[in-house]
Amino acid sequence: GENVEQHPSTLSVQEGDSAVIKCTYSDSASNYFPWYKQELGKRPQLIIDIRSNVGEKKDQRIAVTLNKTAKHFSLHITETQPEDSAVYFCAASITWRGGSEKLVFGKGTKLTVNP
Amino acid sequence: DGGITQSPKYLFRKEGQNVTLSCEQNLNHDAMYWYRQDPGQGLRLIYYSQIVNDFQKGDIAEGYSVSREKKESFPLTVTSAQKNPTAFYLCASTTGWGSDYGYTFGSGTRLTVV
Predict the structure, then answer these.
(1) Which of chain A's residues have a Cβ under 8 Å away from the Cβ of B50?
(2) Secondary structure E strands in A9-85
(3) Is the Cβ of B27 closer than 8 Å to some Cβ of chain A?
(4) B28 with B95: CB under 8 angstroms?
(5) How confident is the model at residue A97 (pLDDT cuts 50, 70, 90)?
(6) Is B108's Cβ below 8 Å from some Cβ in A?
(7) For a designed S-S bond to A25, which of A54, A92, B35, B41 qualifies (C-beta 3.0 to 4.6 A apart)?
(8) Do B98 and A46 touch (CB under 8 A)?
(9) 3-state secondary structure chain B
(10) What's the angle, vertex CA B33, arms to CA A26 and CA A44, rounded to 5?
(11) How far is Cα B19 from Cα B77, in angstroms, rounded to an integer?
(12) Distance CA A107, CA A80 (A)
C-alpha cells in the first residue's frame, strides 16, 4: 500500500552543523509534503511544507527540497542549535478511498544536537 | 491549545473497560483525524472524518469507534476489543476536503492499561 519511508531513524550532530532528513513516497499522485517537529511529550508542530509545483522552499534555517521524478523529499536544517533537538516527521498526501485525501507519515527521525 | 483540545491528558483503563477520549476544535475545520503514536512507529491513522455524520476507517481501526455528530467534536472510544491500547493518542484537524493543508494537532492523551 501507500507508504512513506524516512531515514535516518536517529541523527546526532554537533551544534552549528547541518542536518538532513530524507523521505521517499510511493503514490505518484501525492502533491503536498509537510514536515512536523515533535518535542518530547508534546504535539507535532508544522514547521515547513512544500507543494508539488515547486522544487525547494526555505524558511530561515530550514529548507525542504522535492524531487517528484524520484519521489523523494528532504528536510535541511542549517546552523543547528540544541533547541532543534526533537523528533521530525515527514508526510505525503495520498488519495484515499472514495477519492478523499489524507496524510501518510514517516516513522520519524530523532535529532539530537550536541552543544 | 491552538484551537484543538484533547482531554484528558492522562487516562488509565482497566482490562475489559471501554474509555472515550475527547477531541474538540473551534477552528471551523471540516476534517478531523485520530492517530495513535507508539515509540518507533510514527503516526498511524485510526479513523478520520471529512464531514459531520460521516467517518472512515484508517489503517488500524480495529478495537476503536468514533462519532461525528457535531463539526467541533470527534470523540474516540477505545473498546475492550483493542488488546494493546497503551499508547499516545493524537487528534488533528484541517480545513477543506483535501489534505493539502497543514494539520493542527491537539496536545494528546496518554492512555495506559492498568
Answers:
(1) 100
(2) 10-14, 19-25, 32-38, 45-51, 56-59, 62-67, 72-77
(3) no
(4) yes
(5) low
(6) yes
(7) A92
(8) no
(9) CCCEEEECCEEEECCCCCEEEEEEECCCCCEEEEEEEECCCEEEEEEEEEECCEEEECCCCCCEEECCCECCECCEEECCCCCCCCEEEEEEEECCCCCCCCCEECCCEEEEEC
(10) 75
(11) 6
(12) 22
Instruction: Say yes or no for a CB contact (<8 Å) between A9 and B43.
Output: no
Read off the pLDDT of residues A15-45 as tens digits, 9 standing for 90 and up: 999 999 999 999 888 888 999 999 988 899 9
Rounded CA-CA distance A68/A73 in Å is 8
CA distance B22 to chain A (A): 15
pLDDT tens-place string over residues A102-114: 888 999 999 999 9
Q: Which residue has the cell 492499561?
A: B113
Q: Which H or E run contains B77?
A: strand B76-78
Residues B57-82: tens digit of each pLDDT: 998 999 999 999 999 999 999 998 88
| pLDDT tens-digit map of B73-110 | 999 999 988 889 999 999 999 875 554 567 889 999 99
Residues of B in contact with A100 (CB under 8 A): 50, 56, 97
Question: Binning pLDDT at 50, 70 and 90, where does residue B21 land?
Answer: very high
> Pairing state of beta strands B87-94 and B104-105?
antiparallel
Cell of B44: 498511524
By Cβ distance, the residue of B40, B41, B97 closest to A100 is B97
Do B89 and B108 contact (CB within 8 A), yes or no?
yes
